[in-house]
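Standup, Tuesday
Yesterday: got the pipeline producing structure tokens again.
Today: sanity-check two examples.
Blockers: none.

Example 1:
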Amino acid sequence: MRITELTDVVHFEIADLAAAVRLTRRLAPRWTVSLHERRDVNVVTARLRQHSADLAVLLRDLEAWVEEESLCAIRFEVDGREYVLHAGEADWRSAPRARCA
């Protein structure tokens, strides 16, 4: 994910499509959001509102969601820079498993 210009959007990388849909639904009441399915990762994009603290509000909501989903951490990008948001602990019992052929 490489977007180098300053923008009013935040991109979140979510590996699991179902989780990406849940995040999209969670954010939709407050932000304009979209979900882009890619071969390797799903990207949820949220457009920031004009409020000066909107990014902080969005990231606090995301932090709560990451903990609720037991994801441990997700990558996100804002203004062309990538970050990792950590929250809670991973639930390894629900981790996807590789299929044996």
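Example 2:
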Amino acid sequence: MSDEETEVPGKKPMRLPKKAAKVKNKAPAPLQITAEQLLREAKERELELLPPPPKAKITDPEELAEFQRKKRKEFEDGIRKNRNQLANWIKYGKWEESIGEVQRSRSVFERALDVDHRSITIWLQYAEMEMRCKQINHARNVFDRAVTIMPRAMQFWLKYSYMEEVIENVPGARQIDRPLSSSLGKHYLFSYPQYEVTCRIND
């Protein structure tokens, strides 16, 4: 009987394929490849070969509503996992603003303040959202609340004053600037005199 045949009792010898019959080196390979590596490499090759899916254009109102519902669920799920991650709240609020849902954006920022009412970043992002949407009275309300809670936070006063200056409400800007300059002293006096000169020229 040849090396490539094996005998089974009661049956004729069975011929094995040459590759199965001859194993030159049965020692383990020096570099072992795990199943995880094989799957990862296959996934990488798949990503290299497959083009990115085309961006879908939403034209149907029902489809748009469903997309927004799913997007909100993604944000809410992220917040539930880590409600103290303030970046998630900011992204959520900005997204609502980007689709024209200003009231929903306000609601998101208010919820974020419930989590951390002393976050300067949240207050500023909230006020800036109102400013971008040209909701000046709402922005004033946000700034007033912020400076009441943290009166020594220079960022609020400077942004508040800047907003009033941009909308050319000079008396309002001066009303903010004068007490601010006295409370913050030399750290603020570098900018205030120049601003007063500019206002006098424009008056």
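Quick observation on example 2: Residues 192-203 have pLDDT under 50 and may be disordered. Residues 181 and 189 are 6 Å apart (CA to CA).
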